[in-house]
Design a protein that fits this description.
The chain is of the alpha/beta class. It is built from nine helices and 20 strands. The strands form four sheets. Strands 16-15-14-17-18-20-19 form a seven-stranded mixed beta sheet, sandwiched between helices. The protein has a six-stranded mixed beta sheet with strand order 2-6-5-4-1-3.
């Protein structure tokens, strides 16, 4: 005799069933045959046309991602113990892959990769910063977030509060309004972190995304190991992270470039905080304009150039235009470098897959008349884990080359 399920059912097409059975946790609106009349964000069971249980997840009545699965186990009970256990798994994973020294600034929750669809939690010293893009998590955050605090504090981690950075337009797709501010705790929204031995001031209220980009942590360390004695040009520096790592690694001089005056000012303050200002200068400029200007002026040569641009595309529709932008800056950078120079380049867009990014790099090198000797091919730090069955979690490409 079958046990009656507590949750209403969404019936999924054969195509959607195959998609879910292949491991993806999203069920799109187009693959829903019927859905229950329940509130936005409610827990629902997804079943095949034949009634086979596929999983349980959050219903989003206004999103094209109609159901975000959180479990495929019909025996799971979504009570406090379930969520506490899931937070504990996520924290134990970070302790294993990051090590104690890197836990004070890391991504604690990476959405679907940790079983919390649409939720990002970053730790910056004693502040947790959250971004919630799922209506199911939004409806439960007042119950869930204190559990996360309990898990961390029980492990001896000093956390004074949770600051929300929900000031993103994409929340509208789930029927949510934008907001930011303290959810738990309060106080100063500027804190200090130490990453790879470099100190940064992080403004969790006004900084980009959640305040600081944590995913390039070990890529910055890889750059620092090659920087000794080199003249470095760090493009799209933001608040100076790659530039500071290069300077800390012993670069003879580092020029940090960004189009944002406020970012450049923060980078300058970070350099002073780390005692690196004497070996650095800061330029507020559009990189697309600056690189050809440097070539035309035959300016003093750099023998290490770093490109870490923002995502040029956030949809498949603009991927072609984005590829042209990536090629332009990579070509211009390669034209500036001497033989034997070093080159680091990145893309943080999921919609620029690795194969396409690599082909773009090959084309740029060919047009620049150089060959690239690969030193490393890297991805995001392991606190941003990649699930092979969820391609959206695999987004950061990072390559280091020598020009030969």
């Amino acid at each position: 005799m079958k046990t009656e399920r507590a949750y209403p059912k969404c019936v999924v097409t054969a195509k959607g069933t195959r998609w879910v059975e292949n491991g993806h946790p999203w069920i799109y609106e187009a693959e829903i045959i019927s859905q229950p009349e329940c509130e936005n964000g409610a827990l629902v069971d997804a079943v095949s046309e034949k009634g086979k249980y596929l999983g349980t997840g959050f219903l989003s009545r206004e999103s094209k991602i109609r159901v975000r699965l959180i479990s495929r186990n019909a025996n799971d009970r979504f009570d406090e113990a379930f969520w506490r256990r899931r937070f504990q798994y996520a924290w134990d994973y970070r302790k294993t892959v990051m090590g104690e020294g890197d836990l004070s600034c890391c991504r604690v929750i990476f959405g679907e990769a940790d079983g919390f669809p649409g939720l990002t939690v970053d730790r910056f010293s004693d502040i947790l910063v959250t971004q919630t893009l799922s209506i199911g998590i939004e409806k439960r955050k007042n119950e869930l977030f204190p559990l996360l605090l309990d898990v961390l504090r029980a492990d001896g981690q000093a956390i004074r509060g949770i600051y929300e950075r929900n000031d993103v337009a994409i929340r509208a797709l789930e029927g949510m309004e934008e907001n930011k501010g303290w959810l738990i705790g309060g106080g100063d929204t500027v804190t200090e972190i130490c990453e790879n031995g470099v100190y940064y001031s992080v403004d969790v209220e006004n900084g980009q995304k959640t305040g600081f980009f944590l995913d390039q942590k070990y890529n910055r360390l890889a750059v620092s190991k090659l920087a000794k004695g080199r003249r470095v040009l760090d493009c799209f520096t933001h608040t100076g992270s790659f530039a500071l790592n290069a300077a800390m690694g012993g670069a003879s001089h580092v020029t940090a470039v960004d189009i944002s005056e406020s970012a450049i000012e923060m980078a300058r303050r970070n350099a002073e905080r780390n005692g690196l200002a004497d070996s650095m200068d800061f330029v507020c400029a559009n990189v697309f304009n600056l690189l050809p200007e440097l070539k035309a002026q035959k300016a003093e040569s750099y023998d290490f150039i770093i490109l870490d641009p923002p995502a040029f595309t956030k949809s498949r529709k603009t991927a072609d235009r984005a590829e042209k932008g990536y090629k332009e800056i990579n070509l211009r950078a390669l034209q500036l470098l001497p033989r034997g120079g070093y080159f680091a380049t990145a893309s943080c867009s999921h919609f620029m897959p690795s194969e396409r990014f690599v082909q773009m790099l090959k084309s740029a090198a060919l047009d620049a008349g150089v060959e690239l000797r690969q030193i490393e091919a890297r991805q995001q730090a392991p606190d941003h884990p990649i699930l092979w069955n969820v391609p959206e979690t695999d987004y950061l490409k990072f390559y280091i080359f020598q020009v030969v």
